Structures are given as structure tokens and as C-alpha cells.
Amino acid sequence: MIRAKKSLGQNFLVDQKIIDEIVNILELKNKNILEIGPGTGNLTEGILKKNPKKVLVVEKDNNLASILNQKFGSKIKVINKDILNINENSLSDQTLTVFGNLPYNISTEILCKWILNIEEKIWFDYLVLMFQKEVADRIISNFNTKRYGRLTILANWRLNIKKICDVSPFSFQPKPKIDSTVLLFSPKKNFFIFQDSKNLERITRVFFMHRRKMIKKPYHQLFKNNNIASKIGVDLKSRPQNLDFETYFKLTKEYENLRS
């Protein structure tokens, strides 16, 4: 029996019903697939049954990478590396459809890295990703709610997002202590273009540093005494979660304009 490593956030998906639901979200025939954290290969097996053109899997665990090579042979290409240390834009010269039962401890870091590193030629067409339910709820939340925050804004800047299903702890081995959620992402065709995407990350980080307090202090930290707030209709008595996506995008554009 393969023991999951807690240090790597490993929980292996074993529920065939959920596996079937995930691989049936999209048409996979003749598609180029990337799977993150395949574990013992249960989802990989479901993907292969859909006759994709090529399957790449990224597995950090040396033991699991060896097991996957033995189990699937030439049917897949195993990349035995940490996904956070891989330049996703160089993985393939063809567009990839991505599946991932992401390790809970680094799931937000992975998603933010991918969003901030999107180049003109986008390396994926869809992301089918599983998160801790609490994280997924933050990603799909609306402004004026307590879950709305930096992750919500960053994700919705470049991606269309759809909730697919919730997944109970009983679908995994070992059982996590929390529920999970599968989300489907696709790149947006129309979005705010920034000089540097990291400026959006900075704006949201400063504003949400004290999410229960009014935005007056972080606003002046970023914009000094400029009249940007009145220009785009921002009430400085608001709290960070009271500003919608577009307001943060406009604030980022103004921040860049001041520094150009």
C-alpha cells in the first residue's frame, strides 16, 4: 500500500464516480493534457480512456513518479519536478488542457503563479482544478462578501470560472478533514491590460492587509494625495471587500499611470 506524504499535501482521489465526472467535463479526444499531482494515477487512467493525443504529468514525489512510469509506460510522460519550479509556458509548444488535484498547502500559490505569468500566447485552454472548498469559495465569491479578497480579484482578472462540483472527504485516501471543490477555468478574451501584472498583485495586497478597516490609509499609501479616488468614484470610507473587480483594475491602471 502506498502511503501518502502529509508534507506534500497528498490525498489520493479514489472515488470512481468523481473521477468519471471530472474527465467528462471536457472533450479530451486528441487533446494535449497536463496533469498536476497525479499521485497513484487514478485520474490519469480516466484521462487516458478518453484517447488524448499526449499526456504529461508533473509529480514531485520520486516514489510516485517511478510508480507512474511503471504503471503507464510510454502512454504518459512523467516530469519528476516541483510544479512551482517549472516554467509552465515552456512545457509544450501546443496548448494544454490542465487537470490537477492540487496539494492544499500550495494550491493558491500555483494558481496565482499561473495567472501572473500568462503570456501573449496562452499555454492552456482550460484548467480543471480541485481545491480545498474554502479556497474555491474565495475564488468564486462576490464583492461585499466576507470571502472576497485578493485571490478572487486575481483569478477573475484573467479567467472565466465555473464551479463543477463539491467532493467529500470520503472520495480520497487518506481522507482529508475538509471538503473539496472542482472548478473549471478558461482564459478571458477581454481583460484589463497592465504594464506589469504584479502591480495588480501589489494593489490588492496593500488594500487587503487590513481588510476590516477603511481603505483610506492604504489608498494614501499608494496614491499619496492624488485625486484618483474621486476620478473613479471610490469612497475612502469603504472597506476592501466593498470594491468590485473593475474598481481594483482601474486603481491598478491609475497606479501605473502615475509611475510611467
CATH homologous superfamily (4th level) name of the largest domain: Vaccinia Virus protein VP39
Q: Please state the structural category.
A: alpha/beta
CATH structural class of the largest domain: Alpha Beta
Tally of separate domains: 2
Summarize the main sheet: 7 strands, mixed
Our measurement of the CA-to-CA distance between the termini, rounded to an integer number of angstroms, reads 58 Å
Q: What is the CA-atom radius of gyration, in angstroms?
A: 20 Å
Strand order of the largest sheet: 4-3-2-5-6-9-7
Average pLDDT taken over every residue: 93
- Uncertain spans, ≥5 residues at pLDDT below 50? 4-9
Helix share bin: 25-40%
* Overall number of strands: 9
Here the CATH topology of the largest domain equals Rossmann fold
Total number of helices? 10
> What's the overall geometry?
elongated
| Beta-strand content | 15-25%
Helix-strand topology string:
EHEHEHEEHEHHEEEHHHH
What topology does this entry show?
Blueprint: E1 12-13, H1 16-23, E2 32-36, H2 42-48, E3 54-58, H3 62-72, E4 77-79, E5 96-101, H4 107-116, E6 124-132, H5 133-139, H6 150-158, E7 159-167, E8 172-173, E9 180-187, H7 198-207, H8 216-223, H9 228-232, H10 245-259
Parallel strand pairs: 2-3, 2-5, 3-4, 5-6
Antiparallel strand pairs: 1-8, 6-9, 7-9
